[in-house]
Specification:
CATH class of the largest domain: Alpha Beta
Strand content: 15-25%
CATH superfamily of the largest domain: 2-enoyl-CoA Hydratase, Chain A, domain 1
Radius of gyration: 40 Å
CATH topology of the largest domain: 2-enoyl-CoA Hydratase, Chain A, domain 1
CATH architecture of the largest domain: Alpha-Beta Complex
Shape: elongated
Strand order of the largest sheet: 8-5-3-2-1-11
Structural class: alpha/beta
Number of helices: 14
Distance between the termini: 145 Å
Helix content: 40-55%
Number of strands: 16
Order of helices and strands: HEHEHEEHEEHHEHEHEEEHHHHHHEEEEE
């Protein structure tokens, strides 16, 4: 009995040890890796492409399991779009493109970016499509050139759709026929993968999906995962701000206005400093925007006409011509048909009006200053009122001659009467200056 009891005790102890080791090995449940999120709202530009690349690099560095790109764009530059698509295709973590919020769109370049995503989703009341390439100026391309560009874009769209298992035929139609669909139609046609009401709904619906990245197959575990929004740095925010077509336009106009006032008033310094900084920032922004230099020349010509109004009396003709040239140049400034690359009416009209008004005010102020009598030198004395301190007579006359005196604003001057004799104490008006002697007449004799 004792041997049996000993064996039983050993078995119980061994079982307890094994159970303890199993529990220790299991440990606490591993928390899901966080999901990074970045918002891309507006036209696709080189700055946008840079932001996406930085977001992917940061998400990978922070060991996020995926990056959600919340997209809302009217389109943009083809080169920037291809850069962004390549960034997504070569990402080591899954990229989820989410066309949101409600009312957003993924048009033109946005189609390619959405197609390149590992997972593509759309919010309710959104749309995607209209990816036909257009000429940079928004006009018609030559037949052969149009064919080449369309074929190239269609091939890229097909390759993206095929790579992600999406509707290849629709991708080509979006390029060649500019078709566009709603979020429900997009899911039905297998253009995108799903519809999500919000970010949390999106993470719940993509949970468990398996996607292929450059590092291999990844299974998403996004349900209830921590969301880390990627905050855009001040430098990137600033660059994104000044590359906005409207902001770049305003910077150019402010720059030219500041330089104009500095040239008109040398030594003021502040307008020149502000103008120089604004122009440099505007030219930096123009490097990232599709600029039409004919529009820039028209704006410069308009400013030149406004400046010429100062030198040439045209009765407003040069001012009107300058304003018209600036408005036309403003509309021609950007070589792109998308709304994201146009200067808004609400920006053009106040800006041109303010500049034309300021220059017209400067011209009128200058004209009024030229018409005023001189306020320096001996000429400034003519027309001034004075009081005779002694009897005044004409030069060489018996009533005082050049030895007479008058008081002008507290100063004592030698004076002679320009006409009849003037008794002391009488108010007189200066009619001329002869060296240090004033010629005066009775104040009532002349207006």
């Amino acid at each position: 009995m004792r041997q049996g009891d000993g064996r039983m005790l050993k078995m119980v102890v061994a079982g307890a040890v094994l159970a303890s080791l199993a529990l220790a090995g299991a440990g606490p449940a591993r928390a899901a890796q966080p999901v990074a999120v970045i918002d891309i709202d507006g036209a696709i530009t080189p700055v946008t492409a840079r932001l996406l690349a930085a977001a992917v690099e940061r998400a990978q560095g922070e060991r996020a399991q995926a990056l959600v790109v919340q997209l809302n764009t009217p389109g943009g530059l083809e080169r920037s779009m291809r850069t962004m698509a390549q960034t997504i295709l070569n990402a080591e973590i899954p990229i989820i493109v989410y066309v949101a919020p409600t009312g957003a769109r993924a048009a033109s370049a946005g189609v390619f970016i959405t197609m390149a995503a590992h997972v593509a989703a759309m919010a309710p009341a959104t749309n995607i499509g209209a990816a036909h390439p257009v000429a940079a100026s928004g006009g018609e391309m030559g037949k052969e050139m149009s064919k080449k560009v369309a074929n190239d874009a269609a091939a890229f769209a097909r390759s993206l759709a095929a790579e992600r298992g999406r509707n290849v035929e629709w991708a080509e139609k979006a390029v060649r026929a500019s078709v566009s669909v709603t979020e429900r139609e997009a899911v039905k046609l297998k253009v995108v993968d799903l519809i999500a009401d919000n970010l949390q709904d999106l993470l719940a619906k993509v949970d468990g999906r398996t996607v292929k990245t450059t590092r291999g197959t990844v299974t998403l575990e996004t349900r209830n995962a921590e969301v880390k929004r990627i905050e855009i740095k001040f430098r990137d925010r600033f660059l994104a701000l000044i590359t906005d077509p409207n902001i770049a336009y305003i910077l150019m106009m402010v720059g030219m206005l500041g330089i104009f006032f500095e040239l008109q008033n040398p030594g003021v310094v502040l307008p020149g400093v502000i103008g120089g900084i604004s122009l440099i920032l505007a030219f930096f922004a123009f490097q990232s925007l599709p600029i039409n230099w004919a529009g820039v020349l028209l704006i410069l010509f308009g400013v030149a006409l406004l400046i010429a109004e100062i030198k040439i009396v045209s009765h407003g003709v040069l001012t009107i011509g300058g304003a018209v040239a600036m408005i036309l140049g403003s509309f021609m400034l950007y070589e792109a048909p998308e709304l994201g690359f146009r200067v808004s009416w609400t920006v053009i009209v106040p800006t041109v009006g303010a500049i034309a008004g300021l220059i017209a005010w400067a011209v009128s102020a200058g004209m009024r200053a030229m018409m005023k009598p001189s306020v320096t030198g001996s000429e400034s004395m003519v027309g001034r009122l004075a009081v005779a301190r002694s009897n005044l007579g004409p030069a060489g006359g018996p009533a005082g001659g050049p030895d007479g005196q008058v008081q002008v604003d507290g100063e004592i001057w030698r004076a002679v009467a320009d006409g009849g004799a003037i008794p002391a104490g009488e108010k007189v008006r200066v009619t001329a200056v002869d060296g240090l002697t004033l010629k005066v007449s009775r104040a009532g004799d002349r207006p």
